[in-house]
Amino acid sequence: MNIGIVCYPTFGGSGVVATELGTYLAKKGHKVHFITYSQPVRLDILEENIYYHEVNVQDYPLFQYQPYELALSSKMVDTVLNEGIEILHVHYAIPHAYAAYMAKKILADKGINIPVITTLHGTDITLVGRNPSYKPAVTFSINHSDYVTSVSESLKKETVKFFVVGKDIKVIPNFIDLSLYQGKKCAKAILAAEGERIITHISNFRKVKRINDVVNIFYQINKEVPSKLIMLGDGPERENAEELAKQLGIQQQVSFLGKTNEIERVLCMSDLFLLPSETESFGLAALEAMAAKVPVISSNTGGLPEVNLHGITGFTANVGDIDAMAAFGLSILKDDEQHKKMSLAAFARAEEFSIEKILPLYEDLYKMALAENVVLD
Ligand code: GMT
Q1: Interval between CA 217 and ligand 1 midpoint (Å)
Q2: Pocket test for ligand 1, best of 10, 17, 123 (most atoms within 8 A of CB)
Q3: What's the pLDDT at 375?
Q4: N or C: which end of the chain has fewer CB within 10 A?
């Protein structure tokens, strides 16, 4: 198949999922064209069957806001025409599903009918999409996608609850390439002193991730168990968290490593993973930790309980309940047997989301979309 993938090129989960999906589809022999405003961070454009098309937005003094959707729709149209793309798969509804609808209409005008699949990832539904400034356009573009997928049952429920949706939503969860986590040398000494536990958090440091909770949970754990907190990623809440670590007097114990492609290496050295998010449609970072056999302490919001099984792969607690999360963390770190059991269970759970199991669900959907090739209403 010849597939166009539209996504955000950043470290965010939707961009990572889209990039990895495209990369594996390309390995299976499909041609995959990424259409976005800069090269996705995890994309290797030298790989066979992978192509990258940059969306360029012309600046003009009249514009206070650059018309990205327009440029994106035009790029989709050109790429479909020039490269013979058969299907467009857009990740994160805003504004990609909307831009894809326009591209589809323009192509229909030229006698080309192209199926559009929209994958809902999270805040495009749970936070941003719900905002009255976007809601009518998001509702419209969901309903006018040919197929809609969501990354968890929870996100599907939220979509149906908050939007008037006349489309069936197929749940295709996030996935993981387990091979990336195998055979790593876990040189713990790089990050922690002898006998110290390593606790990790990965995110884009937005408010929704409750970064201060991460620091506060660690503060409580660190009082009883010698440990280091490794913070991977970057974003608007980083400075607050750094300040909090200073106020609590634990700045020597907390390392902010910023954005990195060394996620598997750091997780390999980790003993515990923290994800106390306000909302999380799936929690790809938790799945990455579990693939590295790291038990997870997370909130019980959104799709997290579908990934992190309470009492089995780690523990979940109510959003903001840092005392409970710290107590759960301590109970794992103080009991080697429990830690070992949960590490293995975490890995076993991660296997349920292996790329080998999930990728065919997307391929089947593409095949169905091509076979049916719905005519736009
Ligand atoms: O919704 C977002 O915040 C953006 C998105 C991203 O691009 O970072 O993250 C979401 O998509 C991931 C991949 O499907 C999910 O694993 C994350 O749970 C989800 N984030 C939230 O729901 C906060």
Answers
A1: 22
A2: 123
A3: 55
A4: C
Atom of ligand 1 nearest to the CA of 127: 1
The architecture CATH gives domain 2-174+355-372 = 3-Layer(aba) Sandwich (3.40)
Alpha-carbon torsion (332, 333, 335, 336), positive or negative: positive
CATH fold of 178-351 reads Rossmann fold (3.40.50)
pLDDT digits (tens, 9 = 90+) for 194-217: 999 999 999 999 999 999 999 999
- Residue 108, helix vs strand vs coil: helix
Q: Which residues in the chain are classed under CATH 3.40.50.2000? A: 2-174+355-372, 178-351
Let me know: does 115 contact 146? Beta carbons within 8 Å: yes
Put the strands of the sheet holding 147-150 in their side by side order.
Answer: 50-54, 31-36, 2-6, 87-91, 116-120, 147-150, 169-171
123, pLDDT greater than 70:
yes
Residues in Cβ contact with 12 at an 8 Å cutoff, skipping those fewer than 6 apart: 204
Answer whether 0.90 is exceeded by the pTM: yes
Task: Output the ligand 1 site: residues, CB below 6 A.
Answer: 8, 12-15, 17, 92, 121-123, 126, 151, 174, 204, 208, 279-284
- Cα-to-centroid distance, 121 and ligand 1 (Å): 5
Q: Which value, in Å, is the radius of gyration of the alpha carbons in the chain?
A: 21
pLDDT at 45: 85
CB atoms within 10 A of CB 217: 29
Q: Measured between alpha carbons, how far is 25 from 359 in angstroms, rounded to an integer?
A: 8
- 5, 162, 208, 281: which to mutate for ligand 1, most atoms within 8 A of CB? 281
Among the atoms of ligand 1, which is closest to the Cα of residue 285?
A: 16
Q: Measured in angstroms, how far is the CA atom of residue 285 from the centroid of ligand 1?
A: 9
Q: How far is it, in rounded angstroms, from Cα 267 to Cα 261? A: 12
Q: Pick from 7, 282, 362 the residue to mutate for probing ligand 1's pocket: most ligand atoms within 8 Å of its CB.
A: 282
Strand locations in 10-65 (E): 31-36, 50-54
Residue with the two structure tokens 């999380």: 280
CA atoms in the 13 A half-sphere facing the CB of 364: 8
pLDDT at 12: 80
Position with higher pLDDT, 259 vs 151: 151
